[in-house]
Amino acid sequence: MQTRICRRVYEESWVMLIGCKLPSNNDISPNADNLVTPFIIELSGHYLSVSIHLSLSLFSMAATASLVPSLATHSPTKMRYVKSLAEYPGLTSIPSTYTYTTTATDHATSDPEECSIPIIDFSLLVSGTPHQRSKIIHDLGKACQEWGFFMVINHGLQESMMKAMMEVCKSFFDLTEEEKQEFEGKHVWDPIRCGTSFNTSVEQVFFWRDFLRVRVHPEFHSPNKPAEFSKISLEYCKKIREVVSELLEGISESLGLEACYINKAMSLETGIQTLIANLYPPCPQPDHAMGMPPHSDHGLLTVLSQNGIDGLQIQHKGKWIKVNAIPNSFLVNTGDHLEILSNGKYKSVLHRAVVNDNATRISLGIVHGPSLETIVSPAPELLNIENHPPAYLGMKYREYLLLQLSSHLDGKSGLDRVRVVNTE
Ligand SMILES: O=C(O)CCC(=O)C(=O)O
Ligand SMILES: [Fe+2]
Question: What is the CATH number of the domain that holds 109?
Fold first, then answer.
């Protein structure tokens, strides 16, 4: 049996065997047998660790293969973390279940002209002169309308707090698989859930991403490991809520509404705030895998930060744009519910996360939505039957959220459920 597997490995994976990394000449002593770093291949759904022995004196080569225990259970129902897969010694290619096909139009640009993402100086919104405030509100409105995305600088959060939050998320991902298992959750609605990809029970292709998803408001939840997670995330998320509340005041005004309009109409006092930590380990074939596919976020605003490694791309005027984040800034994107509330004036932005082959990327997205019982529909103040009829139906936020969490992550498909289709 062992020999047959070896033969099949040999025959079916010849290209991979040739392409694998051999020791450099200096490392090979002429008469010694040499063992090349083992690597993993996939054959008919099984994961095999392959070691090649070279014998230079005999000009021969032999391969041994053994099942990789941590990956042997790899199946849609019993999915292991991609972090463990990425850390497996000698992984030179990704299992076919991660192969994500892209087309030429998927290519992202880093042309500075096209990548001039709006920058919002938060300090001018909260403590600028009336003139500075109205200018920044105008800029906010423009950023929401033209990009659905902006970077926030001078937001007032201490660098040390941002670092601590990032560190504690990293420590969470560094827990053992057994420790993380405790937080995997059973239902998409559980307040604490960690896992891999997005929703492995419905996905054909998995994403090169592990995640921790925690509901932090109106009730605060936290994993109890690492011990400091609770204290740090409580403080961090509260600060972010304050920033979001101010941004939403500015956005309300930019729509010609009262400053407190969105906060009140969406019952943000009891609004849902969810912390999503994403871990994208180095990937041996980054061009063939995807961290997170194109999607829009539910909710009103998502506030994203990252560990200094870029990977976020947004769609702007039909093109993918690489986001080069200003250090310590927040990356803010508009969500589906801001699109609904503004009756399509501020569209939610399509975005995705790509992976790389040398550094682990961690991003922290904090999603802010209305209270669960809020029925979100276009603000009546922005409608007029002749020129601006309602373009979306009302739907309870709870239902919208449940539908999105139970489905594939697929572009802006969530909005299609509430979009009014013009039949004329
Ligand atoms: O990692 C990123 O940059 C994007 C993450 C994201 O889009 C999300 O968590 O919804
Ligand atoms: Fe997102």
Answer: 2.60.120.330
